[in-house]
Amino acid sequence: MPVVFVQVGQAGNQIGGELWKIIKKEFSRHHNLYFNRGKARCIAVDSEPKVVRHLLEEHGDIMRESNVMFEQAGRGNNWAYGFFDIAGRTHKTDSISSPSASHIDEAEPIWRDGDTSLLGRVMGAFHKEVEACDMYHGCVVIHSLAGGTGSGLGSRIVSAIRDEYPHGYVLSVVVSPFEGGEVTLFHYNALLALSTLQTDSDGIILMHNEASLQATGKLLAKVTKNSRAGHSLSFPQLNHNVAHSLAGLMCPITPSGRSDLRVTPHVYASPLTASMLQKEKKEWSYGEYPFDIADL
Questions:
Q1: DSSP state at residue 104
Q2: Measured CA distances, 29 to 35, 72, 134, 139 (Å)
Q3: Can you give the three-state secondary structure of 47-64, one letter per residue?
């Protein structure tokens, strides 16, 4: 059954980009679950162009340009700016109107056909992807909880999908901020986003940045036999390992049917972990995973 992926914000698109590297390597482009006529069932969205442009350059062979959308104005690391699309509306018009709770009326649709806002364009592309499915099963939305785009627009997209397609499953893959904090408002952004996701998502995979950093550093140190290797991790390395963890959950068996993919998410083809496990011949316990799974 086909599944549509929606990547929102910087974190969502960077992790999603790494995940598509794995999918391209392991699955044929005729595989109906991930591809439609050789193109990924994926929508990439951000309020700034840099990350999604890089994604399109890296995966231009499978990404539809019409499914990659962005604006020039960010969301100020503010959940409300992303959820109510304040920056987007301000960018398009000279007037600034303050959002209120009345804007989200349960009797009114969250978006309307023909809406030219970022949310409207995302939902228009999502509608086309659903129509291209022989049987729409559900979607996976990847985003962060810290930034304004990931937390605000990400949770708004989840609500819009739930409103438009109530019978399809919605799985939210969210990245929590570091304990030290990346932005001033990250506590509020995370709280407000999770409140929305708890209502509108069927399941949440919560990726802990802190735990992911520790797990990736531990793996790198063991493989390289350098105890200090984990102290200089880059975000690409972190995203790489997070994507392989997700692949173990979402793509547990490849067409070749290799049984080692059933061991743990990390065993799924991560070069670091595969090398480590081959040497030490041991499995990781659930407590080593850098994520939690909430079945709502």
A1: S
A2: 6, 32, 16, 19
A3: CCHHHHHHHHHHCCCCCC
Beta strands of the chain (E only): which ranges? 3-8, 35-36, 39-40, 42-46, 68-70, 138-144, 169-176, 203-208, 291-295
**First-to-last C-alpha distance (Å) of the chain:** 21
> Three-class SS string for 145-196?
CCCHHHHHHHHHHHHHHHHHCCCCEEEEEEEECCCCCCCCCHHHHHHHHHHH
Residue 203 is which amino acid? G
Quickly tell me which residue has 């708890």 as its tokens: 198
Quote the CA–CA distance of 235 and 237 in Å, as a whole number: 5
Check: CB of residue 23 under 8 Å from CB of residue 7.
Answer: no
Nearest CA to 218 among 237, 200, 198, 243?
Answer: 237
Longest dimension (CA), the chain: 63
The C-alpha angle 151, 147, 45, rounded to 5 degrees, equals 70
pLDDT (tens digit per residue) in 113-165? 667 889 999 999 999 999 999 999 999 999 999 889 999 999 999 999 999 99
Rounded to whole angstroms, the Cα distance separating 145 from 286 reads: 23
Within 10 A of 89 (CB to CB), how many other CB atoms are there? 16
pLDDT at 250: 78
How many other CB atoms are found less than 10 A from the CB of residue 244?
Answer: 24
Residue pointed to by tokens 């439609």? 36
| CB neighbour burial string for 219-232, b if at least 16 within 10 angstroms, e if fewer | bbbbbeeeeebbee
The structure's pTM equals 0.79
